[in-house]
Each structure stands twice: as structure tokens, then as C-alpha cells.
Amino acid sequence: MARKTLRTKLCDLLEIEYPILLAGMGGAANAELAAAVSEAGGLGIIGGMNLSPDELDAEIVKCKKLTGKPFGVDTIAPTNMVDTATVDELRNYIPDEAVDFALKLAGELGIPVPEGTRLGKDGGTGWAAGMTPKQIEVVYDHKVPVFAAALGSPAFMAPEAHARGMKVIGLVGNTRQARKEAEGGVDVIVAQGHEAGGHTGYVATMPLVPMIVDAVSPTPVVAAGGIADGRGLVASLALGACGVWCGTAFLTTHEAGILQEAKDRILNATERDTRVTRVFTGKTCRLLTTQLIERWEKEGPILPFPLPIVLCTSLQDYLSEAGMVDNYFIPAGQISGALNEMKSAKQVVEDMVTEAVRLLEELPAATRA
Ligand SMILES: Cc1cc2nc3c(=O)[nH]c(=O)nc-3n(C[C@H](O)[C@H](O)[C@H](O)COP(=O)(O)O)c2cc1C
């Protein structure tokens, strides 16, 4: 099949063939997935958020071996982390009553946590304050072409990144933050709607994208949240975006770095099987609904960001050991309901492009009918 052409100004800016970006997804967007998306003509982005600097270094090296095309790294840039927090210190902020509640709930749900275990002892490395600057140093050392960040503005690093020939992408959920980041020198604004998987705001993609396009013009805007096919891509272009940033759509690919059981749960989910909760991280985050999350919301303490992630990821380890996939914490968007087959990342990109090109050809005739 001849390669389709679908170019926007984003393609020129990021030196890519198609305006399709793999969302930065900590724990899911690994080097294999990022490289596969870049090889397919989009921009692969490694989800570096919960990687130590050494782990991130190894992931970037791997990605470079798999593709010679541009790719990016995503992490978080929050400003309200607990001040002193190394990971060990962070663990000490978790109140005993929260650990006791988690252990009680684990017992009631049959999660095999060994006697005497204090949950929260492992995990959550990337959530410690001071981690982001170390990750950014690794990104600089490797001259990674694109750096992206959510949960805070990456504008602080724009001058240095630009001096090194890099582009900076910021992920936002409202016009105020979008304006702040664009004025601060961020090159591309991702407008992420409420339907998205992972951390998410309150405004849906359909109203959010055109408002942000107007607010930050001429800064390029990329649409995110609920986009998994050519229809979503064309709709995003019609809303004024110059590309899409897709997360959930790539979770059900062979390359995605999550367990096959988690991929199967997304494939079997309907559009109503996700919920926005603070249980997992302390901030509003969309995940597949589970009994554990529902019970915790009703009965348990909601800790401030980022403490719950440390507690929940250690609980996740025991869920994983026991194969209790029904209660896994799986960030995923409402578009999960539309995904029903495993694909390669290349196929996801190709299907999106093929459908979008066909729609763009058919739309003029369809609107004259
Ligand atoms: C499993 C998962 C992990 C995520 N982790 C991150 C992350 O580490 N950093 C980030 O900027 N966004 C993260 N997100 C949000 C995505 O970057 C993206 O905005 C979102 O997936 C877009 O909506 P969609 O899932 O409907 O495509 C995550 C999303 C998912 C589904």
C-alpha cells in the first residue's frame, strides 16, 4: 500500500510524518512502544515519570537502538510536592491509619499481603521531589528531541531546551494554564479533556480544544482525551488542533509495557467502566473502576498527592503476585469502550491515518448531500 500523506504544521515542527503523538504514560509507554510509534511516522514518547535517572537512561538508549527517528520523553513537573521528600522520606508521610485501612481492605478483598507488612515500603520513585531535574539532566545528556510534562509547567526549562535544539510540550486541562505555558515559551500545548486516561481535569475535549486554540494562538495545540481513530483525528483538526496525543489507544498494543491481563481488561471495558478518583494519586485520575477503588472512596482516607501512589503501587505488587487483575489500578480513558482488538503500534497509526485521509476526502461530498 502506498504511504498516505497527512501533514500539519506539527509535522514540520517535530520533524515527523504524521501528526500523531504517543502520550507520555508512566509505566506503559516504554522504549519499544515509543520507537514503534516513531518508526510508524508519529512521535513516540517514553513515559519517564516513574523511572529513576539510571532507568530512564537505559530506556532512552534502548529507544535509540530501535529507531533513528525523533522521539520524546515525558515526566511530571509538579510544584506542590512534599518539600523534603526523598522516596524514603515520602513514605514516612503516609499516616499509619491509611496503611491500616489499606491492610484491612486488602484482607477483606483477599489480597495476600504477608503478615507484618507495612504497605508503602516500595515503589513510587518518580514521585519524590527533586526527581524531575535529575530526569531532565538525562534527557539533556542524550539530546532527546522532545521533552513533555504534565502536572505542572515545563516552561522553566524552555530556554535551556531551546538552546539545545529541543522542543518542549506542556499538557494542560484549562485555558489559564495553557496561556501561562505558551507565554512561558512552551512550544506545543496539549489540550487534554476530562475523558482522558490518567490525571485529568474537568473540561471535556470537545469544548476544551477550541478554547485553548483561541487562548494560545499562534502556539500549536494538540488534542488529547478520547482519541483513538481517524474520526477523532479529523475532529481534532476541525477543532483547530494540529495533531493528536493518544494514550489509551496504545495501551492495547503488543508493545505497551503493561500486563496482558490489563490489556484484556481494557479490551473488555465499556465506555462506562472508568471513573475519576483521587484514591490512586491524590489528584483526579481516571482509571478502570474496581471494587477496591469503590470501597476505598467510600470508606478510606484520601491522602494528598503524591502519597497515595506510593501506598497503592505497593498494594499493586501484591495484587500482581496473586494475579488479581480485577483490582489492578489501571489508568485508562473512556475510549477504552471502543477498543476491542490487540494491534501493533504501527497498525494503530496506520489505521488512524487511513481513516482520517478517507474521511477528509469524503467529507466535502457528505456535507453537500
Ligand atoms: C496508563 C496511563 C498512564 C499515564 N501516565 C502519564 C504520565 O506519566 N505523564 C503524563 O503526562 N500523562 C500521563 N497520562 C495521560 C496521557 O499522557 C494522555 O494525556 C491521556 O492518555 C490522553 O487520553 P486518552 O487516554 O483518552 O488517549 C497517562 C495516561 C494513561 C492511560
Highlighted features:
369 residues; alpha/beta; TIM Barrel; eight-stranded parallel beta sheet; binds flavin mononucleotide
Describe this structure in words.
Helix 2 (31-39) packs parallel to helix 3, helix 3 (53-66) packs parallel to helix 6 and helix 10 (230-238) crosses helix 15. The protein contains 15 helices and eleven strands. The protein has helices spanning 9-14, 31-39, 53-66, 87-92, 96-109, 131-141, 158-163, 175-183, 205-216, 230-238, 248-251, 260-268, 291-299, 307-321, 345-366, and strands at residues 20-22, 44-47, 71-76, 146-150, 167-172, 188-192, 198-199, 221-224, 244-246, 274-277, 285-288. With 369 residues, the chain is an alpha/beta fold. The chain binds flavin mononucleotide.
What is the element string, with H for helices and E for strands? HEHEHEHHHEHEHEEHEHEHHEEHHH
Beta-strand residue percentage: 5-15%
Name given to the CATH architecture of the domain at 9-81 and 130-260 and 339-355: Alpha-Beta Barrel
| Gyration radius from CA atoms, angstroms | 20 Å
Ligand types: flavin mononucleotide
| Number of helices, where a helix is a run of at least 4 consecutive DSSP H or I residues | 15
Biggest sheet record: 8 strands, parallel
Low-confidence stretches: 80-84
Task: Kindly report how far apart the N and C termini lie.
Answer: 30 Å
